[in-house]
Structures are given as structure tokens and as C-alpha cells.
Amino acid sequence: MPATNAVTSVRRPRALNRIVLAMLPRIANWPAAAGLAAIDGLLLLLSLGAAQWWVLHHHITGAGSWIPATAVAWLAGLVVFCATAMPLWHPGQTPLLIAGIEAPAGLLMAATVAAVTGAVLVRLANRAAEPA
Fold first, then answer.
1. pLDDT in tens, 59-91
2. ∠ at Cα 130 (129, 132), nearest 5°?
3. Burial (CB count <10 Å: 0-12, 13-18, 19+), residue 56
4. Cβ atoms 62, 128 nearer than 8 A
5. Most buried of 3, 50, 53, 128 (most Cβ within 10 A)?
6. What angle is formed at CA 94 by the lines to CA 92 and CA 100, rounded to 5 degrees?
């Protein structure tokens, strides 16, 4: 007989319960795990801009601000995606409906990232074009 989660009333198979219970000792130190997750997320956000900066700095002087700018752009994009999609997600939705929610939210996320990075790139290009 499956166990019932009182918070969401979702039935889970016993095997899933065993997996969750097996993981508890590993996540017992959740503040450290949360800290590591935050560091990992920050490194991921910065690595996207660092990879692009590697090419950009050969063409534009002072391109160092590109790295934090892309991190901010992606963070803003993720916020837009979550603010758009999460209120519309509900248990029991069909995969087609979920895709119909996620596709426009993903497009809004992409537009947000493009707007922020585009504005930064224009600023960098204008600054590089100014006479010294």
C-alpha cells in the first residue's frame, strides 16, 4: 500500500519512500548543502559569462563587466520563468498542457536574457568606440 504525503495528498510508492529515507543521512546537514548549492549556482552563472568573455575580450576592451552582466541576465531570466510558469503548474496536468505553459515561459526567459545582455553589449561596444 502506497504511503500518503499529508501535505500534498500525493501517493508515493514504497520504493520512493525508501530512497528518500536513504538520502536523509546525506542531507542531514542541510545548511551546508544549501550553501554548496548556492556556490554551485553562482559558479554556473559566472561560468556562462566567463566562457563568452574569453572570446569577447579579444574584440572589446574592458569586457570584464560581461561576466557579472550575464550572471544577472540569467538570474533575471530564471526569475521571469518561475514567476510566469510556477503559478500555472498544478498536479495532474497533461504533458501537453505543461509544455504549453513552459514554452511561453521559456520564451519570456530568453527575451529577458537577450534584453539584458543586449543592453550590456551595446554599452560595451559604445564605450569601446569612444575615443580614448
1. 888 899 999 999 999 999 999 999 999 999 888
2. 120
3. middle
4. yes
5. 53
6. 125
Give the separation between CA 76 and CA 69, rounded to whole angstroms.
10
**Which cell numbers hold the place of 84?**
510566469
Mean pLDDT of the chain: 83
Q: Distances in Å between the alpha carbon of 69 and those of 23, 27, 52, 99?
A: 37, 33, 11, 29
pLDDT of residue 130: 78
Q: Find the farthest-apart pair of alpha carbons in the chain and give their distance in angstroms, rounded.
A: 75
**Cell numbers placing 102:** 513552459
Cβ distance 117 to 45 under 8 Å?
Answer: no
Nearest Cα residue to 71 out of 118, 116, 115: 116
99: its cell numbers: 509544455
Do the Cβ atoms of 128 and 61 come closer than 8 Å? yes
Quote the percentage of the chain above a pLDDT of 90: 50
Residues 112 and 77: beta-carbon distance below 8 Å: yes
**Residue 72, helix vs strand vs coil:** helix
